[in-house]
């Protein structure tokens, strides 16, 4: 556990705080080098995402590592973030979601927010909007809307956690989001069309 003072009070929905999973287990094969460690605004993409997560007020925050571990731990030093290593990271994102959920306290969170390290235009305000929308509507999932996609970052009600645990292989949260159709709430996030998967994406970001 890496501990430090939390700048914002945890955001409470229903009876407890919202947990956040920050997924950073991939090997960045399309980028050709670890995208989590790419420089962005004087820090790395991972550090930027971690600071965004902390500023959202979520607690606990669980960083899921995989292809890299010690290097990523260094990047979140001083932040109130717990890290868990997903030894099965190569099997796909589903294993990282399971690893993150497994690292949460036994007390069920009010909801779980999932975000990635390769969406640097995500802001604390967007994360808080997702939480507020879920609180107001009690939707099973509230997801970010960009282009024709509903995807992460997204928040999942406790009733959805068993479904997340049942995802397999390369299935990310997007499959579960799509399966619920109109039941999914949405928060507009046009900037979500830019994620950093390739050198061209990174050049566009900069």
Task: Please name the defining characteristics of this protein.
single chain, 206 residues, alpha/beta, Spore Coat Polysaccharide Biosynthesis Protein SpsA, Chain A, eight-stranded mixed beta sheet, two-stranded antiparallel sheet
Explain the overall architecture.
It is a single chain. The protein has 206 residues and is an alpha/beta fold. It has a single domain, classed as Alpha-Beta Complex (Spore Coat Polysaccharide Biosynthesis Protein SpsA, Chain A), CATH 3.90.550.10. The protein contains seven helices and ten strands. It has helices spanning 45-55, 70-75, 93-102, 124-137, 161-165, 173-179, 199-205; strands spanning 12-13, 16-24, 39-40, 43-44, 61-65, 82-85, 111-116, 141-146, 149-156, 185-188. Strands 1, 2, 5, 6, 7, 8, 9 and 10 form an eight-stranded mixed sheet that branches. A two-stranded antiparallel ribbon has the order 3-4. A hairpin with a 2-residue loop joins strand 3 (39-40) and strand 4 (43-44). The radius of gyration is 16 Å and the shape is globular.
Q: Which architecture per CATH?
A: Alpha-Beta Complex
Q: End-to-end span in angstroms? A: 32 Å
> Could you report the average pLDDT, rounded to the nearest whole number?
91
- Stretches where pLDDT is under 50 for at least 5 consecutive residues are 1-15
Domain MobA-like NTP transferase: 21-180
InterPro entries: MobA-like_NTP_Trfase, Nucleotide-diphossugar_trans
Protein name: Nucleotidyltransferase family protein
């Amino acid at each position: 556990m890496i501990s430090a003072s939390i700048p914002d009070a945890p955001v409470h929905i229903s009876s407890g705080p919202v947990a956040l999973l920050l997924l950073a287990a991939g090997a960045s094969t399309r980028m050709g080098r670890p995208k989590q460690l790419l420089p962005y605004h004087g820090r790395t993409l991972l550090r930027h995402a971690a600071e965004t997560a902390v500023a959202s007020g979520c607690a606990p925050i669980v960083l899921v590592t995989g292809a890299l571990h010690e290097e990523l731990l260094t990047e979140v030093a001083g932040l109130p973030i717990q890290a868990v290593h997903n030894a099965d990271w190569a099997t796909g994102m589903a294993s990282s979601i399971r690893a993150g959920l497994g690292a949460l306290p036994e007390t069920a969170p009010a909801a779980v927010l999932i975000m990635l390290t390769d969406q640097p235009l995500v802001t604390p305000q967007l994360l808080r909007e997702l939480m507020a929308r879920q609180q107001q509507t009690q939707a099973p999932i509230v997801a970010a809307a960009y282009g024709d996609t509903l995807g992460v970052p997204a928040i999942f009600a406790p009733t959805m956690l068993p479904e997340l645990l049942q995802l397999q292989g390369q299935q990310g949260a997007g499959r579960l989001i799509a399966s619920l159709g109109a039941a999914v709430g949405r928060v507009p996030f046009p900037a979500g069309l830019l994620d950093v998967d390739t050198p061209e994406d990174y050049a566009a970001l900069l």
